[in-house]
């Protein structure tokens, strides 16, 4: 323990939000030093050996544009590691980047945020990836807890705090009191499912195939959870499924709202189910404090108003929903007593 505390003085301890869509890294005393897509470009030879060509932004630019020998891989799916080897290489890349590509003499302590309800096998995969990437000690914190800390919620007090963290692969809903999660629910619906629903809508209604990146751009430009008086229009390019040639269509914000209605209803149902299981004393607190939205999905237009309509509770969006999780984990780096309380074994 004494050796660990001495090492801590010399190492750059890290907090990592290992997200399905983006990976963010926070370095103690420096703040957020990396925020890049969770994508790795891999080339596989005839013997099945994988060679990493690019990671993060550079690899994301290759999504949907690679030749047969190169694959742009997302090593995390639905919030969990789907490709252990590639996830490890991606973690190594981010750790090395934060140390300016120098091999540090002292290995860092790393906090990794994980989804609610992660299995023991998945926990072990995350820990082993971080250790293989150079961590001295690995702590896991549930993303909703990190998001609540990052949003400035008083999680250590004996009061009900409700947070909804809408990430790329999962949405976590939790009621927190006294530094513990009292009630929680996780659904494998997030930003990726919203993109997928737009992709499928275009395919079904226009017989046109669009890529993941195009669907994401449509969501960001036209996405709204509630009907809007001003209907916006966007040109979308893709491939005609009948003729096979490129084509262009016009899609409206109303169509995008309809396309995303099913995954949004799953998120709202998860919130309602969590509220139904919340002890009455904590429910009374939530009536006053309301629901805090975090994660990239919190930026979807009108989602806060829709949740307010469905639950009758006040809804707030975190000041910076995209960085809430990593900022919360970063705050825990400086408060080891809280870290030991909130970390999952």
Task: Describe the protein.
Helix content is 39%, strand content 28%. The chain is α+β, with helices and mostly antiparallel strands and 345 residues long. It folds into three domains: 2-38 and 74-146 and 324-344, Nucleotidyltransferase, domain 5 (2-Layer Sandwich), CATH 3.30.420.40; 153-189 and 260-317, ATPase, nucleotide binding domain (Nucleotidyltransferase, domain 5, 2-Layer Sandwich), CATH 3.30.420; 191-257, Actin, Chain A, domain 4 (Alpha-Beta Complex), CATH 3.90.640.10. The strands form five sheets. A six-stranded mixed β-sheet has the order 3-2-1-9-10-19, with helices on both faces. The chain starts with a helix and ends with a strand.
Q: Please summarize the sheet with the most strands.
A: 6 strands, mixed
Number of strands: 19
Q: CATH H-level name of the largest domain... which superfamily?
A: ATPase, nucleotide binding domain
Give the overall shape: flat
- Please state the structural category: alpha+beta
Distance between the termini: 18 Å
Helix percentage = 25-40%
Q: Pick out the low-confidence regions.
A: 1-10
What is the topological layout?
Layout: H1 2-10, E1 14-18, E2 22-27, E3 31-37, E4 40-44, E5 50-55, H2 57-60, E6 70-73, E7 76-77, E8 80-81, H3 84-98, E9 109-114, H4 120-132, E10 137-142, H5 143-150, E11 161-166, E12 171-177, E13 180-187, H6 191-206, E14 208-209, H7 212-222, E15 233-240, E16 246-252, H8 253-276, H9 280-289, E17 291-294, H10 303-311, E18 315-317, H11 324-333, H12 336-342, E19 343-344
Parallel strand pairs: 1-9, 9-10, 11-17, 17-18
Antiparallel strand pairs: 1-2, 2-3, 4-5, 4-6, 7-8, 10-19, 11-12, 12-13, 14-15, 15-16
Helix pairs in contact: 3-4, 5-11, 6-7, 6-8
